[in-house]
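User: Could you go from structure to sequence for me? I need the amino acid at each position, not a summary. Structure tokens:
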């Protein structure tokens, strides 16, 4: 098993993800489902934080940033 703390790969952030050959695919938390606008000008900080917190509460998962430009003022 490989443990990944935090990894950004082509628009995805994985948190607390453990991978094994027999494990089901991780849950996906789309930032737009948590209120991100993704238009490049709206501040998506709170929506991104909600998606990250939901992944953490679920024991890990993938935070997905779909096509678009998310604006963030705070660091992740």
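Assistant: Here is the amino acid at each position, in order:
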């Amino acid at each position: 098993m490989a443990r990944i703390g935090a990894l950004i790969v082509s628009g995805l952030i994985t948190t607390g993800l453990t991978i094994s050959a027999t494990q089901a695919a991780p849950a996906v938390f789309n930032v737009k489902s948590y209120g991100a606008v993704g238009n490049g000008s709206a501040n998506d900080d709170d929506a991104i934080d909600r998606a990250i917190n939901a992944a953490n509460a679920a024991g890990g998962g993938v935070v997905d940033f779909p096509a678009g430009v998310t604006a963030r003022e705070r660091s992740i």
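One structural detail worth keeping in mind: Strands lie at 2-9, 12-19, 28-30, 39-43, 61-64, 69-71.
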